[in-house]
Amino acid sequence: MNKLLGLSIFFIFCYSFLFASDKYLLTECGESRLHIFENEQVAVLSSEEDSILASSDGKYFSRSEYDKKHKLISKILWENKGEDSVIVSRLDYNYNENMSFPKDSTFINYKNMELVKTTFTQNGLTESEKIYILLDKTDFNITQLKTEIHYEYNTDSLITQKTIYTYNNNLKTKTEKYVYQTPGKDYAGYDYYVNEKLQRSIVYSSENEYTDTSYFSNNQYVVASYSGGRLLKEEFFSNSKNIDRR
């Protein structure tokens, strides 16, 4: 009975949000498909202009729209509360002409009253993020900047720096840096700094073997050794003296 009720709600959802436009009525150039899995229902409708994918896992409904080149344009998520269903979030992408990756996106979290504006590089990497607090539930243009993040990359598309600006009563800046030891390799080790202070160091001896060192205050640090993805041992140091081993 619960499964039947869930399917009924899902079909109503599909009709309301998937088939609401005349251009999505079945025609010679349109196609509709419904897939039912154990706990999820997925409906797909495609036309010459774009495609719509609607899905439900019982707790949430989502509606994703793709253009004719199969690039994601928008995704809306609802929390399933029957007739009282509410929008949880909405994500929208903008593209430059003839570009595969988006130039920017806007994400609204209605539950947390938060807005995130993201820009991307030509390679699709995140370039910057601006996180805003929504101050008015009826007007999303009324916002307050909360956090701003900027990203930098090397020629291998690996992140080299992340700068975080937090706007509260006073501006706070946090800089995270990644210094790679073997550039050009998929398993490049790196040193990780926060505000110029070393926090972590990963050093590879081979593709599947490496050590992961975490640094703490008072000259203490922990060295974890891995092989094939498995933790072999952990060694604890204080002032360069081994004080424990597991």
Walkthrough of the structure:
With 246 residues, this protein is mainly beta. The protein contains 1 helix and 18 strands. The chain has one helix spanning 2-18, and strands spanning 31-36, 41-46, 50-56, 60-67, 72-79, 86-94, 104-109, 114-120, 126-134, 143-153, 159-167, 171-180, 190-194, 197-206, 209-215, 220-227, 230-238, 241-245. The chain has an 18-stranded antiparallel beta sheet, with helices on one face. The protein is extended.
Short summary of the structure?
With 246 residues, the protein is mainly β.
Shape: extended
Computed CA radius of gyration, to the nearest angstrom: 24 Å
* Fraction in beta strands: over 45%
**Helix and strand composition category:** mainly beta
Helical proportion, percent range: under 10%
Low-pLDDT stretches are 1-13, 15-30
How many helices? Answer: 1
The quaternary organization reads as: single chain
Keywords:
single chain; 246 residues; mainly beta; 18-stranded antiparallel sheet; 1 helix; disordered N terminus
Map the helices and strands.
Blueprint: H1 2-18, E1 31-36, E2 41-46, E3 50-56, E4 60-67, E5 72-79, E6 86-94, E7 104-109, E8 114-120, E9 126-134, E10 143-153, E11 159-167, E12 171-180, E13 190-194, E14 197-206, E15 209-215, E16 220-227, E17 230-238, E18 241-245
Antiparallel strand pairs: 1-2, 2-3, 3-4, 4-5, 5-6, 6-7, 7-8, 8-9, 9-10, 10-11, 11-12, 12-13, 13-14, 14-15, 15-16, 16-17, 17-18
